[in-house]
């Protein structure tokens, strides 16, 4: 049995301007726009979050991408899972950073792709503008076999890159919205992959978010052809196991909102992280994740879950929990959510408060795990 965990970090390409974001949000909009305007919403709320070593970077610069890869190596991360957007009829967004990684061969750092197959809506980043709530900016569509083939042919260039991450000799491909994926999609892609020389096909991983019933989700998703699933849990298992129950916790949260101005689902990280991994993650076809922090308020104000008072020390304990589970499995894949989701307070990159604290915590835990 291979005893080395394989940590793959999600990577957001939103840190450079594109014409569509200029039109929707104003000239020069990037993820940093939300990060920079964030304010603390209650006493002790860690906002704004200011990047340290890399600064407010622009992903069009190859020097930035090289520096990110070097920091990820330092942390013990095996590779990045670049978020990739294909909306149908060949329409892509935010593609430039990965295109340049693919075409240049740099950085020399392993990667795979995660398809963010969901529509983009105007409900979060302009939360004060009630007239634009829930407007679809660009819709995710599934245009049929010809479009699936065009999409596959683009991704095939990445699959053939020697840096591309594989599991059981299959290129790893992560899908965000597994439920809505057309039933014939995976079958067709596996067929074309085998014709292209990948005789074992593709290792398809399905994302399942928070509150889905676990057994139902596996039974519903794996028959579509997925090889594995990965649960994204920032709060669901905490609510399931909390003695107050979700209803009473919500009441307590409303009191917090009215008196202390905290978001309804404000949870101490030290109370939440033991529930990020459940019994299901012990199964070979369920891939666990590690989560350094979570704070969506730069995008959505008080409406979303906030994990309070995360520290590198607590994160290290969380990583230990995950590695204990993985040590008993043949499948050593672990997803790190995320490398650079700054507007979700969900990142490993150095900031002014903790510096490289989370990077060191992950590396130390991996070294101790040896």
Give the SSE layout.
Layout lengths: L5 E6 L7 H7 L5 H7 L24 H14 L3 E6 L11 H9 L6 E5 L4 E2 L14 E3 L6 H15 L6 E2 L2 E6 L9 H11 L7 E7 L4 H8 L6 E5 L3 H6 L3 H16 L5 E3 H4 L16 E2 L6 H4 L5 E3 L3 H15 L6 E4 L3 E2 L4 E2 L9 H13 L1
Parallel strand pairs: 1-2, 1-13, 2-3, 3-7, 7-8, 8-9, 10-12, 11-13
Antiparallel strand pairs: 4-5, 6-7, 14-15
Helix pairs in contact: 3-13, 5-6, 12-13
Brief summary:
The chain is 35% helix and 16% strand.
Structural write-up:
With about 375 residues, the chain is α/β, with parallel strands linked by helices. The chain has one domain (about 5-245, about 270-300, about 310-370): Glycosidases (TIM Barrel). The protein is about 35% helix and about 15% strand. The protein contains 13 helices and 15 strands. Strands 1, 2, 3, 6, 7, 8, 9, 11 and 13 form a nine-stranded mixed sheet that branches. Strands 4-5 form a two-stranded antiparallel ribbon. Strands 10-12 form a two-stranded parallel sheet. The mean pLDDT is about 90.
What descriptors fit this protein?
370 residues; alpha/beta; TIM Barrel; nine-stranded mixed beta sheet; globular
